[in-house]
Amino acid sequence: MAFAKTDDGVNLYYEESGSGQPLIFVHEFAADYRSWEPQMRFFSRYFRCITFSARGYLPSDVPTDTTMYSQERAMKDVLAVLDHLQIEKAHIVGLSMGGFATLHIGIHHPERALSLVIAGCGYGAQPEKKTGFHAEVEAAAKLFEDLGSVEGGKKYTIGPTRVQFQNKDPRGFAEFVNAMSEHPVAGSANTLRGVQKMRPSLWELIDGMKTIQVPALIITGDEDDPCLEPALLMKRNIPSAGLVVFPNAGHTNNIEDPDLFNSTLSEFYLKVLSGRWSLRDPRSQATGILGFK
């Protein structure tokens, strides 16, 4: 088994496959390194692909101290894996919690990114929803502590932005739920309290978004209601961003619609590698239909 060690002594399990430009996948809260298997199989034909489990997710270490979990640490852990592999720059793909980490790399460490894919990012990000989001996150942490990973995972994965996956692919959804049932309770609770609950709102990051010049693609499902407005916010403020909305789709973009996800990224990378992905033309931001206002 292969591990990268962080600067605070945490071992992060990773797998890699393929050759070429490096492409690293950063998973969401309800998943782990295994959730990127459809992308690892497809993109390792063309890229050097890396997937890893965040701290708190096996086979990575599971610190019991909540202070060892944070949004900044989640960002740094991606870079720790790249550093261990002696990778200076990579294409970075993140979903949900991983999407937040990817965005933060774009803001704080753009020199490490060849491109950014920010998918399913934004739940709880609206400023007016902050208090309610904090209460919901705390309730989820208690859910895992009270019921354990198996029953807690069953309740967590059947949320309103996950039922789309269940309806489309019952077998894939069952596999997803079973994988989450194997997550350690301490890792789930600490990730919720340290990373999810304490992360800054996307609305607090607008100034940082405006500095991003790295090619960026934002993906959201049209039935992932908590992420629709945040996706528009990022599109409007990241000069290099494109936005794709998957139809009749929920939150778990890469495994709910793996073929669409892979083809969307393929087209994005074709444009990036050919030098055809450009910053937004400022003329498109003029007000009025004809741009006279």
Total strands: the figure is 8
Largest sheet: 8 strands, mixed
The helix fraction, in percent, is 40-55%
Give the CATH level 1 class.
Answer: Alpha Beta
* CATH architecture field: 3-Layer(aba) Sandwich
Into which percentage range does the β-strand content fall? 15-25%
List low-pLDDT spans: none
The CATH superfamily is Alpha/Beta hydrolase fold, catalytic domain
Give the radius of gyration.
18 Å
> What's the tally of helices?
11
Order of strands across the main sheet:
1-2-4-3-5-6-7-8
Mean pLDDT, rounded to whole units? 96
How far is the first residue's CA from the last residue's CA?
60 Å
Helices and strands, in order, run as EEEHEHEHEHHHHHEHEHH
Describe this structure in words.
The protein is of the alpha/beta class and 293 residues long. The chain has a single domain, classed as Rossmann fold (3-Layer(aba) Sandwich), CATH 3.40.50. The chain contains eleven helices and eight strands. It has helices spanning 37-43, 71-84, 97-108, 130-156, 163-168, 170-180, 185-196, 206-209, 225-237, 253-256, 258-273, and strands at 2-5, 11-17, 22-26, 48-52, 90-95, 113-119, 216-221, 241-246. Strands 1-2-4-3-5-6-7-8 form an eight-stranded mixed sheet, sandwiched between helices. Helix 3 links the parallel strand 5 and strand 6. Helix 2 packs across helix 3 (97-108) and helix 4 packs antiparallel against helix 7 (185-196). The protein is globular and about 60 Å long. The model has no long low-confidence stretch (mean pLDDT 96). One of its GO terms (molecular function) is hydrolase activity.
